Amino acid sequence: MKPERVNFHIIRAIPDPDRGETINVGLILTNNEDAVLSLDFSNSWQRLQVLDPNITKDGYSSLVGWLSQSSANSDVAQLSEIAENARLSGTFDLTKGREVTFKGSPIEEVKDWLMKRFVDQPGLVRVRPSIRSSRLKGDIHGWLSKKRLVSREPSEVSNKLIQDFVLDEDAQASADFVGKNGAWHVFETLDLRVGARTLKEKHLEAGFKAWKLGRSEEILRSKDDIEVKRFVIYASSKSTPEPTMQKVVDQCLNILRSSADKLLDYESSGDRQLVEQEMAKAVSAPVT
User: Fold this and answer.
1) What is the pTM of this model?
2) How far is it, in rounded angstroms, from Cα 66 to Cα 196?
């Protein structure tokens, strides 16, 4: 069997052309005559919010629909022209073709492998926050430790909340806390009690956590097909922040809002009680 060859082009979104930042969102496969063979996009529109908090699910869906329609009867030259115009308006970019050789595999499998290699994982690794812990996560760990409700051993997930529960080793993604009691309970923390400069970088962390919450449902259901409940526990400064800082806080929470069932403010006494109640429910423990 002779090896086959196709070319692939990576579709990169450009939310803001002035900043020039891009993120890989899709892939186009073409043959040697530059005819389009296959087209695919990432389902995680939240990744774009890492670069532009104003991106919406509907906006991303519109971009995907437009590109899919544009590629239906186009070749690479036509798509490149579309991309050149789109690049100027800050919509998307199309990389030059790179050849890949394969043998005996359906083209859809080749596409799936390329998507995983160049689209789904690299961008996520780049935006993964470098801070592995936070004061908020530490505070919650301390409360759980006093109640003897936390562990790092995944086999204890039905009895205790597992801290840093591994979701995806390839993407180096772990949920902050996971419990299991008739349903999966996933908790992510976001500590916004930081200075102005650090706060502006929290978009990256919020985007990564939104992706983890979305990914957790697929991964945990594959382990045990029961309901997955997702929570975000956040904390921001008690003092009234400047309007620009409050805007960043609101943007971070908006990034997470569509990925979580509940957003709970740890600085609110009422919400803190809810945090303790939900975490206790996750392991069927009384709240004392």
Assistant:
1) 0.60
2) 38
